[in-house]
């Protein structure tokens, strides 16, 4: 029997690859760093915030609108609550909304998209028409409707956003599924007698995930901004929930005199959005073998 | 002589307005036997392969396995057919899932038909199959991109053999490979033919490859059969002008 | 016409092609044979001055009628590419602009090299006739013509530009064998009628045997054998060349039944 030499050295560790990728893309490392910090803040907010009770339903009439410094590093708002504390707790609200919206969107959109793309025919048509209908809803209008029917809150805002967001994932997943359905290994699986659902789960889904993951990261920033906008309009989180957009709303009338009330949460929004975007851009370059090879 | 294993009876395949396969008929006897399908692009050869395996619907005619029309097969029999007839496609078409290790790909059929439980017995069988096609057991842990084109083609063959098929359909199995690698794959197919008494259909645009591995062959043009017969006869004494044109166009080192 | 000496193309510290000497005279077809990774494509790219843009280091000497090209300016290379040294690639539509109709693309390319107006039109029609393509092709887009037609179109472009040297990198590998025969016949005719010098790269020794006067066999970036085609293919000196020749399936040999 002829011997065929092993061509490659032992399999490379994927973790080392990621490390190398981070080194090659400092911007993505920065994005990842920001998000990691954000997550840690969200988790440990009660421990690191100087005045944890200020995140709740309290007022300190004697300490209203104190400028940054002393016991309140970033000042206090109109109700005397510590801005730094509320911004730190705000990370929880924002991240929670982002995670909930992304989870719902992906959980609904991806399976629908894959089934549509891989099955074709009338199934594809029906699913795509449903997707189109939901695409037609602007998040703001839906949030307004929900706020009118139910009560405005961070949860309802998240629901409104999720309802308008999942169609994008359906479309994305469908596109991937369409392309993957043509590949040799999918045909081979069918020829081997692998049941249809298993082909979808084992071959189509894992290969359709990378673009989805990239999209998730890029969308995080958008979702956060949308939630902030909804809160800013009064349709999302309500006082005393600490939410960055709401805080900007509450401080907008005081920009000239007590700038910190609006600016600090505003900066938080920007930093988080930038972090998600950098991470998403980096992931896209990482997961797309053809793009950015030279970087 | 025993009944043919696979029969194509006047099969017709259409894609919308395109008549890809027209009234094609042939029989594949039990092994060891090789049937060649010779054709250039647009000849319908790959479509015929998919139709034979029931992967593409027929617009007319029928495909029979051991005498039974595969379109009329019920669930259980259809699954048995999927074991009996396997497809080996060319490496260039991403025949192996890039996200699965080679061993897992090779074992896919074993899993689908519950031939062996997951565990040491399955792993041993995969190692055995890899060695049979000229790879090493270590290749099971590799990903497809870590293998060369020739090695991937061997893995694809191993995957097809894993379910112990009686019929193998090879669609341009060496077209994407260097000539020395091709020669070794052809040797492998020859060896498998003898050792497993395989019956196969070899699809290729390369007349010399068909000549080396097929007892009989069919020449296809625009979806229809223009000539058929024992390979030596078709290639040495072509009757149809298209076959003659094909034969004359093949450059040879004088 | 083209003389290559001690050419070395490297990426980092990996040498992908090393050619001690290669010469192309007018009206001569030299075949560059080898499998993947042999360095034959890299050699062709070096002769077109494209290696550096891919990040490779090139050393040695490449002369065209005595003019040293290795360190020539990019401007000089642009003058030469297409005009004096043309390339036909494996992917038939690879060198065509998918958004332009073929006729417009042809004339634009000629204009880039200073050939315009009535002269350009005349050359285009003559070149198309040369490659047996009809005028109605001019109104089509690249995806509307077959692979063989696209390949002949690319050759026609070289003819119209009166390129003296044609580099062909696996031009027929993606084509059906009958179409391949047509393209090979066309290349032979070009050599007869226009005296074009050609470097024909292929993994197919039989095609090279049919077409080339001399052949250079490469393996893993190095030249293993070179000489007159009939000699190398019938009495190969190198073991690798012999292995290559043995591997080529021939109709009538090793029949199974």
CATH class of chain B: Alpha Beta
How many domain units of chain B? Answer: 1
Shape of chain B: globular
Provide the helix percentage of chain B.
25-40%
Compute the average pLDDT of chain A: 83
CATH topology of chain A: MetI-like fold
Helix content estimate of chain A: 55-70%
Number of helices of chain A: 10
Largest beta sheet of chain B, briefly? Answer: 6 strands, mixed
Oligomer: heterotrimer
Tally the structural domains of chain A. 1
Structural class of chain B comes to alpha/beta
State the distance separating the first and last CA atoms of chain A: 44 Å
What is the CATH H-level superfamily of chain A?
Answer: MetI-like
Number of strands of chain A: 0
By CATH, the architecture of chain B is named 3-Layer(aba) Sandwich
Number of helices of chain B: 10
Summarize the structure.
With 295 residues, chain A is mainly alpha-helical.
Give the SSE layout:
The complex is a heterotrimer of chains A (295), B (254) and C (257).
Chain A lengths: L13 H11 L1 H23 L34 H37 L1 H15 L3 H11 L4 H27 L3 H9 L3 H37 L11 H8 L8 H28 L8
Helix pairs in contact in A: 2-3, 2-10, 3-4, 3-6, 3-8, 3-10, 4-6, 5-6, 6-8, 7-8, 8-9, 8-10, 9-10
Chain B lengths: L5 E10 L2 E11 L4 E7 L5 H8 L7 E6 L2 E2 L5 H10 E4 L13 H5 L1 H5 L7 H13 L16 H13 L5 E5 L7 H18 L2 E6 L2 H7 L2 E6 L2 E7 H6 L4 H9 L5
Parallel strand pairs in B: 3-8, 3-9, 6-7, 7-8
Antiparallel strand pairs in B: 1-2, 1-4, 4-5, 9-10
Helix pairs in contact in B: 5-6
Chain C lengths: L1 E10 L2 E11 L4 E5 L6 H8 L9 E8 L2 E2 L5 H7 L4 E4 L13 H11 L4 H14 L16 H14 L4 E5 L7 H18 L2 E6 L2 H7 L2 E6 L2 E7 H6 L4 H9 L10
Parallel strand pairs in C: 3-8, 3-9, 6-7, 7-8
Antiparallel strand pairs in C: 1-2, 1-4, 4-5, 9-10
């Amino acid at each position: 029997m002829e011997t065929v030499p092993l061509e490659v050295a032992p399999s490379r560790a994927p973790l080392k690859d990621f490390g190398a990728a981070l080194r090659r893309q400092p911007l993505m490392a920065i994005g990842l760093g920001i998000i990691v910090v954000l997550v840690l803040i969200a988790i440990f907010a009660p421990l690191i915030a100087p005045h944890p009770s200020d995140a709740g339903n309290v007022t300190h009439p004697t300490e209203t609108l104190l400028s940054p410094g002393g016991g309140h590093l970033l000042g206090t708002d109109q109700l005397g609550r510590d801005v730094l504390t509320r911004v730190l707790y705000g990370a929880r609200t924002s991240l929670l909304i982002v995670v909930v919206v992304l989870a719902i969107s992906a959980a609904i959109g991806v399976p629908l998209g894959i089934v549509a793309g891989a099955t074709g025919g009338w199934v594809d048509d029906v699913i795509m028409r449903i997707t189109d209908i939901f695409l037609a809803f602007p998040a703001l209008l839906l949030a307004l409707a929900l706020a009118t029917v139910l009560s405005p809150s961070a949860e309802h805002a998240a629901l409104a956003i999720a309802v308008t967001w999942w169609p994008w994932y359906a479309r994305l997943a469908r596109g991937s599924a369409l392309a993957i359905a043509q590949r040799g290994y999918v045909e081979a699986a069918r020829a081997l007698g692998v049941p249809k659902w298993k082909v979808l789960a084992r071959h189509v889904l894992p290969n359709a995930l990378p673009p989805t993951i990239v999209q998730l990261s890029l969308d995080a920033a958008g979702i956060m901004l949308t939630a902030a906008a909804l809160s800013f309009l009064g349709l999302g989180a309500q006082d005393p929930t600490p939410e960055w957009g709401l805080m900007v709303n509450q401080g907008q009338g005081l920009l000239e005199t007590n700038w910190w009330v609006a600016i600090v949460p505003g900066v938080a929004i920007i930093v988080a959005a930038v972090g998600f975007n950098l991470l998403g851009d980096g992931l896209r370059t990482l997961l797309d073998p053809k793009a950015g090879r030279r970087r | 002589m025993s009944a043919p294993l696979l029969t194509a009876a006047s099969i017709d395949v259409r894609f919308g307005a395109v008549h890809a396969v027209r009234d094609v008929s042939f029989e594949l006897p039990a092994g060891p036997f090789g049937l060649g399908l010779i054709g250039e692009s647009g000849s319908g050869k790959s479509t015929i392969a998919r139709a034979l395996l029931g992967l593409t619907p027929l617009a007319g005619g029928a495909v029979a396995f051991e005498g039974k029309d595969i379109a009329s097969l019920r669930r259980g029999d259809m699954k048995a057919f999927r074991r009996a007839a396997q497809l080996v496609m060319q490496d260039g078409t991403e025949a192996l899932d890039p996200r699965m290790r080679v061993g897992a790909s090779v074992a896919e059929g074993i899993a689908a038909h519950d031939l062996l439980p997951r565990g040491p017995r399955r792993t041993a069988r995969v190692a055995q199959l890899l060695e049979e096609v000229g790879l090493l057991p270590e290749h099971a842990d590799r990903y497809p991109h870590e293998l060369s084109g020739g090695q991937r083609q061997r893995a694809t063959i191993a995957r097809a053999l894993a379910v112990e098929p009686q019929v193998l359909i090879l669609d341009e199995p060496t077209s994407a490979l260097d000539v020395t690698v091709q020669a070794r794959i052809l040797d492998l197919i020859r060896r498998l033919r003898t050792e497993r008494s395989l019956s196969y259909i070899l699809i290729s645009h390369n007349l010399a490859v068909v000549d080396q591995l097929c007892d009989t062959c069919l020449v296809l043009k625009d979806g229809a059969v223009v000539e058929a017969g024992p390979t030596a006869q078709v290639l040495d004494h072509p009757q149809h002008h298209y076959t003659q044109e094909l034969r004359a166009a093949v450059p040879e080192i004088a | 016409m083209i003389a290559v000496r001690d050419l070395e193309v490297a990426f980092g510290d990996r040498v992908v092609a090393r050619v001690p000497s290669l010469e192309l005279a007018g009206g001569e077809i030299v075949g560059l044979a080898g499998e993947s990774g042999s360095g034959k494509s890299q050699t062709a790219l070096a002769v077109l001055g494209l290696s550096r843009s891919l990040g490779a280091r090139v050393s040695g000497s490449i002369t065209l009628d005595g003019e040293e090209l290795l360190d020539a300016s990019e401007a000089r290379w642009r003058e030469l590419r297409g005009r004096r040294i043309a390339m036909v690639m494996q992917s038939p539509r690879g060198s065509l602009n998918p958004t332009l109709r073929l006729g417009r693309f042809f004339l634009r390319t000629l204009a880039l090299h200073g050939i315009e107006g009535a002269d350009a039109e005349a050359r285009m029609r003559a070149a198309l006739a040369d490659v047996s393509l009809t005028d109605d092709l001019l109104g089509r887009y690249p995806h509307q013509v077959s692979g063989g037609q696209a390949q002949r179109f690319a050759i026609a472009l070289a003819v119209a530009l009166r390129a003296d040297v044609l580099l062909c990198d696996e031009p027929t590998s993606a084509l059906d064998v009958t179409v391949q025969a047509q393209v090979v016949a066309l290349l032979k005719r070009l050599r007869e009628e226009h005296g074009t010098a050609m470097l024909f790269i292929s993994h197919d020794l039989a095609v090279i045997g049919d077409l080339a006067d001399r052949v250079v066999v490469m393996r893993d970036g190095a030249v293993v054998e070179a000489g007159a085609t009939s000699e190398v293919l019938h009495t190969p000196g190198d073991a690798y060349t012999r292995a290559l020749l043995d591997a080529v399936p021939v109709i009538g040999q090793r029949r199974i039944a």
